[in-house]
């Protein structure tokens, strides 16, 4: 079952031509709206058996589980939840860091299954001034140099501006994906996949890199639940680029997250695959096949055969909050496609959960964020990166959502 883009887009779709798709010898990537092909999208409001979805029960017990399974089978693979044990060990506790404004906790999360174990390091700062009151928290899934999340603060980066978040009254946490699955096609298996879940590697819909990173974020949430300094009911998961893809999959899989934030996640993240704008399914499967389940390869140069598109991933996060961020010069990630995905996915927030918010049909101007209840979007100036401007917008959104 398919449904068309909003009527306001019909005139644009009629003008859009045929994209130049990748060939075996040379990939040609489209950066022109006029060359985006016409397309139709799978309908979140119709089940695989043709049942109309119109109530919260229909959504929670029929359509949303279907959508999650479709993404598991065709895009990201399973995220196994079985384990035999988990322990949290604070290996470094320092009070009065950041000139007395914060407490540092470095925590080893040890997970065991079938006689094997793996340890993930979680870096957490909590505000000192709210030591008797749990703080809302932002978790960053990072694939960049570990220096970006330096717990000593000898190295500081706008990619993870911990001081800014502490000043705003938020706890701030991060883990590096290399602790759960290397961001490398040669070594991605070496961590949780070979150690804890080797059976997944033999499955066409088994967990791969992005699913492993989502699994790591879920273990961080397990820690937040038992830390009295953190308000796990007000937790946000954040990812940039490939980390943004994993953040969206985390928010879809794990309903404990109050806010899911995708920063410039592009193809396989927030952007609609069927637009074939910038990075395509073919290109991402060629360069980063280890991010996705093996079945995703079927949809290279064949996006229209996908039983899902990324607006449905955003829809699956409803009624919880979702924020999509783009950058003006990051055409590879298809900013318009990211916004359209949020726009179409947010129909579930409005139609099923009756939120009195409606995003405008067109993306906002650069540096004019939209914060409407559980829906957020901004496009900033500049290139592909996670910056202090992005973080400031995320914090403003959370302040408004939490009424702080």
TrEMBL record:
Domain of life: Bacteria
Domain 4-O-methyl-glucuronoyl methylesterase-like residue range list: 110-350
GO MF: carboxylic ester hydrolase activity
Pfam family, one: GCE_fung
Keyword Signal annotated: yes
Signal sequence bounds: 1-22
Alphabetical list of Gene3D superfamilies matching this protein: alpha/beta hydrolase
Swiss-Prot/TrEMBL keywords: Hydrolase, Serine esterase, Signal
Residue ranges that the Swiss-Prot or TrEMBL entry lists as coiled coil: none
Protein name (database record): Putative acetyl xylan esterase
Organism in which the protein naturally occurs: Lunatimonas lonarensis
């Amino acid at each position: 079952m398919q449904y068309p883009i909003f009527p306001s887009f019909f005139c644009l779709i009629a003008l859009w031509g045929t994209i130049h798709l990748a060939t075996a010898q040379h990939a040609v990537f489209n950066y022109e709206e006029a060359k985006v092909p016409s397309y139709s999208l799978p309908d979140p409001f119709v089940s695989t058996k043709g049942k109309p979805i119109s109530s919260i029960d229909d959504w929670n017990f029929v359509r949303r589980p279907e959508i999650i399974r479709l993404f598991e089978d065709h895009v990201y693979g399973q995220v196994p939840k079985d384990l035999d044990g988990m322990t949290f060990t604070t290996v470094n506790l320092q009070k009065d860091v950041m000139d007395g404004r914060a407490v540092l906790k470095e925590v080893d999360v040890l997970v065991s299954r079938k006689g094997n174990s793996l340890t993930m390091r979680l870096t957490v700062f909590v505000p000192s001034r709210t030591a008797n009151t749990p703080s809302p928290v932002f978790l960053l899934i990072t694939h960049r140099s570990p220096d970006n999340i330096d717990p000593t603060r000898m190295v500081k980066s706008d990619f993870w501006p911990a001081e800014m978040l502490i000043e705003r009254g938020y706890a701030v946490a991060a883990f590096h994906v290399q602790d759960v699955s290397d961001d490398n096609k040669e070594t991605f298996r070496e961590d949780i996949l070979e150690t804890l879940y080797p059976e997944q590697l033999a499955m066409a819909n088994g967990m791969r890199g992005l699913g492993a990173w989502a699994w790591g974020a879920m273990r961080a949430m397990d820690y937040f639940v038992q830390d009295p300094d953190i308000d796990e009911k007000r937790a946000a998961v954040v990812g940039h680029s490939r980390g943004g893809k994993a953040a969206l999959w985390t928010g879809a899989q794990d309903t404990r997250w109050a806010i899911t934030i995708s920063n410039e996640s592009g193809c396989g993240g927030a952007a609609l695959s069927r637009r074939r704008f910038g990075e395509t399914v073919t290109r991402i499967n060629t360069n980063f096949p280890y991010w996705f389940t093996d079945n995703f390869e079927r949809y290279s140069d064949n996006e229209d055969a996908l039983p899902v598109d990324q607006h449905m991933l955003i829809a699956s996060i409803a009624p919880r909050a979702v924020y999509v961020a783009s950058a003006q010069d990051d055409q590879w990630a298809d900013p318009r496609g990211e916004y359209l995905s949020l726009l179409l996915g947010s129909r579930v927030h409005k139609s099923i959960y009756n939120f009195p918010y409606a995003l405008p049909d067109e993306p906002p101007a650069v540096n004019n964020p939209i914060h409407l209840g559980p829906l957020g979007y901004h496009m900033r100036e500049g290139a592909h990166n996670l910056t202090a401007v992005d973080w400031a917008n995320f914090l403003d959104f959370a302040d408004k959502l939490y009424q702080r």
